[in-house]
Known about the structure:
Blueprint: E1 8-12, H1 16-28, E2 32-36, E3 55-59, H2 68-82, E4 91-95, H3 99-110, E5 122-125, H4 127-133, H5 138-148, H6 150-176, H7 180-199, H8 211-229, H9 251-266, E6 267-268, E7 281-285, E8 304-309, H10 313-317, E9 324-333, E10 345-354, E11 357-372, H11 374-377, E12 383-389, H12 391-406
Parallel strand pairs: 1-2, 1-3, 3-4, 4-5
Antiparallel strand pairs: 6-12, 7-8, 7-12, 8-9, 9-11, 10-11
Helix pairs in contact: 2-3, 6-8, 7-8
Amino acid sequence: MVTDFIDSVLIIDDKEEEVKALQKVLEDEDICVQFINPTGKKATDLPVLKKNRDLIFMDLSLDDDEKMIGNISKIRKILLNILPKNKGCYGLVVWSKHIDDIDILKKKLLKDKEEYTLPMFIVPFDKTDYLQRGYGNILNDLNNVLTSDKLAYFFLSWRSSVQIAADSAIFDIYSLVPEYENQQKELIYLMYKMALNHTGIPVDHIENYDLTTDAYKAFDELLYSDLINQQNKNSINIFKPTPQNPYNNADNKKNEIFSKLNSKMFIDKVNIQQDYIIPGNVYEIIGQNLVRPKLPNKVKDVEKYIAIELTPPCDFSQKKKINSRLIKGFLCDITHKEKFKNEFYYKDMFPLAIEENNNLQLVLDFRYFETVEDSVLKDENKYKVLFRVSPKLFADILQKFSSSYARLGLSKIE
Length: 414
């Protein structure tokens, strides 16, 4: 039911008496409701929301004396001025009799996509019908609309499950030490151990390291564990019928979208510091006298020459490391991907979005393996840290490098 996903609602209407009954229906479901009447007020004088609302009910005709295009302009100004700056997600329910007006509103809102967060979905309801027969069935109607909109249903359901998983992760940690008098001492220590475990950084390396950020990352992993274990197995199948590829003959758009998704999944830019060498750190090779891998034929240039620190995490955490182990390679345009055919290349990660470039491929040449002193890797004039690869990508690179490095081959007479 839609009420499982909705905690707070904002109603914006010029006739409060017409939505009083709606407010009561929502509040009876324990949904927090706020009402704003914009009549006679500038959009800049309306209260700015300090927190996000799950749903906004908006009258499309806020001023009966205005033409439709004027009311749509008013709505755009209101959203621009009242929405919180944290870019929270929400859905927009618009009181309107005419679907054509909703289509105009959608097109106009798209012009504002750089100004504020647009609604995830926009659905039209006819307020006149509810004024005649009451609001008693509106939640069922809304539920039917959202379950037919598979994307809206999925993201509302998923966001609700994230909150449930977060509460579960916190409860599980607190339940380890239920005695209030011991929590400050014991739980802080447990979180400290979890933070150390996240990257495996040794205790004597953390003097100026932001370990608190790693504690957040460790809790993200707990959240993920709880999240995948509580997803609703009986939810609506959003992939029936099977989706068709909309990107045929549109490689540029596909690469831009896929590269951003890949970067979110496989690239970590948070708490990456030059002075702390963590396995999986990727560096740009800056020093002019440093060895750079040779480009294959027909590749004339690359975005950056890079090196990845590939010390096994167990050696790092147990302080068995003496020097840093580097594999060198490139960040290059994905148009070159067919030119990296030999077995000594790691070439599986593309497309990636790094900085302003959405068409990059990460390529490593296993033949360019070397060890350097940590002081060299910390020198920004020689190597500049760019990001860290995710544990999943790091494991894939390490496994394929180990396989390539350990192969024996066979020198036979031909």
